[in-house]
Amino acid sequence: EWSMANYIEESVRQIRETVGDKRVILGLSGGVDSSVAAALIHKAIGKQLTCVFVDNGLLRLHEREQVEKLYGDHFDLDLRVAKKANLFLGRLKGVSDPEKKRKIIGNTFVEVFDEEVNKLKKRGNYAFLAQGTLYPDVIESVAIDGNPAALIKSHHNVGGLPKKMKLDLLEPLRALFKDEVRELGSELGLPKEVVWRQPFPGPGLGVRVMGPIRKKDLDVLRRADAILHEEMMAADLYYKVWQSFCVFLPVKTVGVMGDERTYENVVALRIVESVDAMTADWARVPYEVLRTISSRIINEVTGCNRVVLDISSKPPSTIEWE
Ligand code: XMP
After folding, report:
1. Which atom of ligand 1 approaches the CA of 314 most closely?
2. pTM to 2 decimal places
């Protein structure tokens, strides 16, 4: 009889059998899929699994610390954190074209990850690269490979990595759909914030600061985004929408604060409902909630004196702005 508990037991048995006494590397992003894959493989082989988390300088507020706390401390997982913010931001300096930004971030990620893998290989018998590939990813990658025109925005997923690294793929979620992965994650003890987390793009905040990325603009965006997150949680809306995030606009507008004139940047709120991200509609968030979000961002975040709301649906707009 099929049950999640049986499924876990069977997966654990298979992972142990496949891996034997070798070691496994997994690129942990903190998203649902890689987190559940990590928890499942960790349950099967414990410290034979090493997770690599790359801090690319484009993460949300306290994101790295949260990953370190949950996986390093709580799950006692062998976690390596590659702190590479300067490398990524250096290469992105002055780059404004969205596709160029994505390519730089994607390529730099592959390079950093490859470096970590090589360091690890010197330490022990690493033979597998684990990925949180789901059943729909398997289908999608076939579609994309067969028809390059279908790829509207270059996707930052780690396809193609293992060949070059001489590692075998370990993909224990390959048969599962997203809802099953969430159930599996809960069963494995991952918290709701991870299992029901909103999607976050691979290039991170790099595609949410419009145009060239500057450190100080990233900081403004991070603080605004954290406030939006807090208020969506407080209003009990965070888990009800598909995504809610801020976008930094490199546009300055005039404002007034006390007796002083300000001249600062604009932050846009992007809050959408969707079932599969193929189409999306802007969420009808109550005015009172929007008012709190806006006044908190303008009052608490230096560098932003205006908040606007994105009321575009997909299509013809996309969810992300770049
Ligand atoms: P768009 O902007 O194309 O986004 O409507 C659709 C969904 O995909 C997410 N997204 C990405 N996810 N790597 C990802 O893993 C990426 O490069 C990427 N770009 C966009 C986006 O957040 C939305 O949920």
Report:
1. 5
2. 0.93
